[in-house]
């Protein structure tokens, strides 16, 4: 199959987004895991969870994020789809916290720690859009990331 310059560019964009997501998600995961007590505390501060529930939720989130990273590495298409839906769920969650006046600052870890809701929301929506773009380009080119 002859590959056009346009489809090569789309593949390059998809690949860039894919590798960016892997690095970004590993960075966030490691920061949360290394300072798990701060992550648990941030969840607890929302007022929605008891200390035990916050601890369970924190470990559950880490488990889901690690699973997502593993899917990205070993099954790129599935990993991108999981990432897309996780970003949507996280965005709905922080929006709910903001609407209910429970959002204080981002507790994602690393350079994202302490972000206002507005900045966190913009980052999440951007992640949703670029992940959707990577998925769209991979299907539009009729190429499989998994091959």
Automatic annotation (TrEMBL):
GO terms under biological process: methylamine metabolic process
Subcellular location: Membrane
Entry keyword Glycoprotein: no
Record-level GO cellular component terms: membrane
Superkingdom in the source lineage: Bacteria
Alphabetized UniProt keyword annotations: Membrane, Transmembrane, Transmembrane helix
Signal peptide limits: none
Protein name according to UniProt: Methylamine utilisation protein MauE domain-containing protein
Organism (species): Epilithonimonas hominis
UniProt-listed InterPro entries: Methylamine_util_MauE
Annotated TM spans: 16-44, 56-75, 82-99, 119-139
Main location: membrane
Coiled coil, from the record: none
Domain called Methylamine utilisation protein MauE: residue spans: 12-136
Pfam families per the UniProt record, alphabetical: MauE
Membrane-related topology note: Multi-pass membrane protein
């Amino acid at each position: 199959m002859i590959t056009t310059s346009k489809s090569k560019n789309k593949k390059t964009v998809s690949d860039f987004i894919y590798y960016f997501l892997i690095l970004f998600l590993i960075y966030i995961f490691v920061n949360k895991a290394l300072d798990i007590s701060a992550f648990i505390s941030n969840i607890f501060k929302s007022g929605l969870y008891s200390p035990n529930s916050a601890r369970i939720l924190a470990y559950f989130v880490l488990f889901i994020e690690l699973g997502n990273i593993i899917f990205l590495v070993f099954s790129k298409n599935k990993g991108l789809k999981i990432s897309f839906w996780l970003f949507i769920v996280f965005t709905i969650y922080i929006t709910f916290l903001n609407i209910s006046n429970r959002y204080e600052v981002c507790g994602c870890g690393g350079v994202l720690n302490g972000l206002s809701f507005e900045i966190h929301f913009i980052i999440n929506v951007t992640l949703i859009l670029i992940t959707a773009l990577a998925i769209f380009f991979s299907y539009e080119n009729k190429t499989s990331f998994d091959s």
